[in-house]
Design goal:
This protein is of the alpha+beta class and about 350 residues long. It has a domain of about 120 residues: Nuclear Transport Factor 2, Chain: A (Roll), CATH 3.10.450.50. It is about 25% helix and about 40% strand. The chain has seven helices and 18 strands. The strands form four sheets. Strands 3, 4, 5, 6, 7, 8 and 9 form a seven-stranded mixed β-sheet that branches. It is globular, with a radius of gyration of 22 Å.
Length: about 350
């Protein structure tokens, strides 16, 4: 998946044997066999962050070789990616990988952090560092580095498949990069389909119009909840976040910083982040994908006026992983990149 944005991968995990009480004494061999056949089957063990990171490394190696066959098996048919307002799927990702040629002198993935969303869905977050460049559409771009990457994994039988991947440049919030300069010849804004290199298995935008996906039936409810979350951010309402964020939580913010706990994220949003002049917040372009009956991935654009930590607010492209606990949907993970 590299649109130039580094890969991720699948975990091969062992099994956790479920205990069961021994059957009552029985001299009938056939009956005993039936009891054994009906005994509780072992359940697959949870992956480790090290195992998921190793699979990310294997995916990265496949990306550098242009091995699209690797991603055919690694990516779930439910895979989604969201960059600069463009939503892409599995076929778009594989096509992007096939059309990208990279020259990487050195690279590393480390500082892995894992968030459990459900028994069948996990998120792995890590830091990637690259020294190299990639050629796409005839243009050579240096791979941004360092980056904060996020991969969402879905259990499919005895293996794990990727359902989402993205990366964000790690920047100094006090010295953000300047926006792209206008063309000296025409002073026109960069074309919508221009791409900036990044180091992952997917790209910032598809070279061709991406395939359209059908939003899940839960999209409207999740968009409404996400809007309420932005309102809570404006009001610094820690109680709302406490109620609507899952116990296991992680977030990558627009600067590439990672907060790996519910408490740290809420404190950041309601206390330590200094915001002024926010009078309006809104979300738009929301679309959700059902990953399992209890897990959805919502892609959406959020916008706020005013400033935060001395920087002017604007558009944020967000990917939110929601998990259903009982009858309530809760935010389990959030990935944010600023609009370009």
């Amino acid at each position: 998946m590299k649109k130039l944005i580094l890969p991720f991968m699948i975990a091969i995990v062992g099994s956790l044997v479920a205990g069961c009480a021994p059957p009552a004494a029985n001299t009938n061999v056939a009956n005993t066999a039936n009891v054994n056949a009906n005994a509780a089957k072992p359940s697959a063990a949870a992956p480790t962050k090290e195992a998921l990171l190793e699979l990310d490394k294997k995916a990265n190696e496949a990306w550098m070789k242009g091995d699209t066959a690797h991603f055919e098996g690694m990516l779930s048919d439910k895979f989604v990616r969201y960059m600069n307002g463009t939503r892409t799927g599995k076929a778009d990702e594989i096509k992007m990988i096939a059309g990208t040629k990279c020259d990487v002198k050195s690279w590393s993935l480390d500082d892995a952090q894992m968030t459990k969303v459900s028994d069948d869905v996990y998120v792995n977050t890590y830091k990637s560092t690259f020294d190299g460049s990639c050629v796409m559409d005839g243009k050579t771009e240096k791979i941004p580095s360092p980056m904060r990457a996020t991969s969402v994994w879905l259990r499919n039988g005895d293996k794990w498949q990727g359902v989402y991947h993205n990366e964000a440049v790690i920047i100094d919030p006090k010295a953000p990069p300047a926006p792209p300069a206008k063309s000296e010849a025409t002073k026109e804004e960069p074309k919508k389909d221009d791409k900036a290199a990044s180091n992952s298995n997917a790209g910032n935008a598809a070279a061709t119009e991406p395939a359209k996906s059908t939003p899940s039936a839960n999209t409207d409810a999740l968009v409404k909840m996400h809007q309420a979350g932005w309102e809570a951010f404006k009001a610094k309402d820690a109680n709302w976040f406490n109620e609507h964020i899952a116990a296991n939580f992680g977030v990558v913010d627009p600067t590439g910083a990672y907060y790996g706990s519910k408490a740290d994220a809420i404190k950041r949003w309601t206390e330590t982040m200094k915001c002024e002049g926010i009078t309006n917040v809104k979300v738009s372009d929301g679309s959700s994908t059902s990953i399992t009956p209890s897990v959805e991935i919502l892609t959406i654009k959020g916008t706020a006026d005013g400033t935060c930590d001395g920087q002017k607010n604007g558009d944020l492209y967000q990917t939110a992983v929601y998990v259903k606990e009982g009858d309530a949907w809760k935010l389990a993970y959030l990935f944010e990149v600023p609009g370009m």
